[in-house]
Structures are given as structure tokens and as C-alpha cells.
Amino acid sequence: xxxxxxxxxxxxxxxxxxxxxxxxxxxxxxxxxxxxxxxxxxxxxxxxxxxxxxxxxxxxxxxxxxxxxxxxxxxxxxxxxxxxxxxxxxxxxxxxxxxxxxxxxxxxxxxxxxxxxxxxxxxxxxxxxxxxxxxxxxxxxxxxxxxxxxxxxxxxxxxxxxxxxxxxxxxxxxxxxxxxxxxxxxxxxxxxxxxxxxxxxxxxxxxxxxxxxxxxxxxxxxxxxxxxxxxxxxxxxxxxxxxxxxxxxxxxxxxxxxxxxxxxxxxxxxxxxxxxxxxxxxxxxxxxxxxxxxxxxxxxxxxxxxxxxxxxxxxxxxxxxxxxxxxxxxxxxxxxxxxxxxxxxxxxxxxxxxxxxxxxxxxxxxxxxxxxxxxxxxxxxxxxxxxxxxxxxxxxxxxxxxxxxxxxxxxxxxxxxxxxxxxxxxxxxxxxxxxxxxxxxxxxxxxxxxxxxxxxxxxxxxxxxxxxxxxxxxxxxxxxxxxxxxxxxxxxxxxxxxxxxxxxxxxxxxx
Length: 511
Prior knowledge:
Blueprint: H1 2-17, H2 20-38, H3 41-70, E1 76-77, H4 80-84, H5 88-98, E2 115-125, E3 128-136, E4 142-148, H6 151-172, H7 174-222, H8 236-296, H9 302-333, E5 341-344, H10 345-356, E6 361-364, H11 366-371, E7 378-381, H12 383-402, E8 410-415, E9 423-429, H13 458-468, E10 472-477, E11 483-490
Parallel strand pairs: 6-8
Antiparallel strand pairs: 1-4, 2-3, 3-4, 5-7, 8-9, 9-11, 10-11
Helix pairs in contact: 1-7, 2-7, 3-6, 7-8, 8-9, 12-13
């Protein structure tokens, strides 16, 4: 998965870098097209001409201000209060002008003793552009005279001057400015590219991590660890894929367990077939030999006759037991294929009730089902085999209750299907000693029994029969004591004119 993650990141980088070359070329062309008209020589010359014209107008304003002073026309005077209100920077500017060499001159006729010490100069005081000049009064004191510069003239001069300086700086630094703009563009683009890479890494890790978990799970299952489960991380289809994997492994576990069960069952059937063959053959000769021994004696010794008869009786009894064992082995080894047909569950239960009677078997909820007019449920089954299954389970339940001295009927309950074309259930409930939890998985194994006289084949045959009908059987503890054997069987389709067949009573070996 590391290679896949690297491939995803490489694809993201490639996708992010491919537009970089045309983007840089476009940005370079755009910046060039923006700068070239601004840096045109004609535009710069026009700005300079406008600035020269504005300066000429300012110069004319200065000359007019000087003429007014020479003519002693009314002009503004910077009073002591106005000078005191100036900022340090503004006072420093006035001091710098006052420190210049004396350029005094005498005023026009009629203005005796009036001298212009500092001719008109442009200066900014407060928020106004002014023309100021320093004069020497007749009493030898100095004074600052001022005249406002027209605002439009001042602003135009400032604007043209700044623009010219800016354009000249751009002309001098055209290449560095262009490189700076491109560097800024590349920096922004690089930041976006880095963000894309980080998001790509996060997304790649997020999407490949579940795949890596799935790959590890597949390797583990391939190694035989069917208990493997993977965490269902991620979202969407990937999470569904992990969930499907866990479900698949769960089904594999069930199939493996079923396979082991079938293999074990096959081995037991093969052994049962061999034992039945080996045991069955000598039974008849043994019984005949014992009978011949009994019949061949013609003496009159009563004790010997009694001994012979007792021994022959024992031999015949044991031979009968062995015949039963051989019959059980044969039945277990060669379970016939079920002859399927649609059979009503009610018909099977009616036969069971007729066989055992209400004192030994009761149908739980039968009255309620009749009141609700519950439909008849049909199952696809071999009626004789299903009949023997129920007989075996009921006999076991009755024996279990007898061991505790309980005299209650065995309860049989029909569990209706939750949906059409689903599965119907049967529960056989007793009040016996119950089955310990650690033995519930073993009671269906051949040769396992909890009774001293049991052969351990009855429940094995029951389970094999139920499985042959595509059903299942399980045992659980009953509340208040006892056991519950729960059978589930698939519902079978039935035509409206199908009638239930008769059934033949049969028996089955007990566990």
C-alpha cells in the first residue's frame, strides 16, 4: 500500500505542476503588458511637461507674491501665536530658511527701509501649502509673510512629481520589479501547491489505510486464520468493502466448521458401517450355537439345565442388544435421502399428539393461534423422517424429566415466520436437569451421551436429518430449569389442492 500511496501523491503533484508552466508564462505576459504602457517614454515626457508647466505656474505665483511685498500690498503675516502653534518639524523648516545667507533687497519706492531678507519660498505648514518670505521691518525686526498656493496647483504638482519619480524608478528597476511580481506569484502558487500536497497526502493515507488493513486481513485469512476480523474504518464504499470482508470471513468460518462437522460425521459413518458389518455377521451363529447347546442336553440335572437356560437367555439378550446397536449403526451410516413433499406442520403435530396424548405432550399457544386464525404452515420435508426427529427429541425430554421425578407434559411451540417465504420454528421444551453450556456444542456429536445406557447416536441422527432438510437445530437453557431444542425449517410452497399424506410411526435410538 505504500507504493499505492506514493503513486497517488505523485499523480496529485503532477496534476498540480502541469498548469504551472502556462500559468507562469501567462503571469509574465500579463505583468509585461501592464508595465510596458506605464513605462512608455512618451507618457513619461508628457508627465514631465505637465510638471514643468505646473512649476512655471508656481514660479509665477512666487513672483506675484514678491511684487505684492515690494508694492507693500496686503499680505498675511505669521503672528507669534501662529508660529507657536507650528509643529517641531515646521519650525525646523522655517529655521532652515532663516539660516540661509542674507538675500535681502530694498522694496519698491514708497516702502522705505522695507527689505526682503528671504525671497518667497514654498513650504507646507499645517495642512496648507504656502508661499512664505521673511522681511526686515523698518524697526529692524523680522517678520514672516505668507500667501496660500492654490490647492489644485499644489496637488497637481505633488501628483505629477510623485508619478514621475515612480515611473523613473520602475524604468530603472524594471527587471527586478518583474522578477518580484513573478516571485510573489510563484510564492502564492507554491503555497497552494503545498496545500494540495498536504491534502493529497491526508486523502491518500485515509484511503490507502483501509486498503492496507484489508490486505493484511487477506494475508491472515490466506494463512488459515479464519478468526481474523478487520476494523471497519473509512467511509462509503471502502467501509462497505471491509464490512463485506468480515462477513465473508464469518461465512468461511461457518463453512469450515460445517466442513469439519461433515468430515467427522463421514468418518463416524464409515466406522459405524464397518462395525455394523463386523458385528452383524457373527450374531446369528452365536445365538444358534447357544440354542443348540441348550437343546442338545438330554440329561436330567436340574441345576445344569437351569444354568444352561440362564446362560442362553443372557446370550440371547446380549445378541438382541447387539442387534439394536447394529441397527443404530446401520441407520446412522446410511441415512436415506429425504423424500421431499409439502407437509403441514399441523398434521405432523396432530400425529404426535395422538401418539403421546395431552398428558405427555402439549402444544403451547395452540388456542391463541386458533383464535387469531393463524394460517397453516407447510414445510418441504420427508414426513417420516421429521416424525422420527420429533419422537426422538420428545423421548429424550421425557427421560430427562423422569430423572428428576418431574411429571409435566413436554411443551411444543410453533414459532411463526417473521416474513413470507421465511423460516418457521419448532421449540421442544422440557423441565429436566438441562445441559451444561460447555456440553451444548458436543451433544450432537456421534458417540457422545450423558446417559449411562445411551449409544450417542440419536441426536447425531437428528442433526443430520435437520441439515438434510436445509434447517438448523440448537439447544439452550430454559428459564426456570430444563432445556429447549429449537428447530428452524424453511417454508415450502404448496398448491391449494395438496392434501397431507398419512405417516408411519417409527422409533429412533435415544442418546
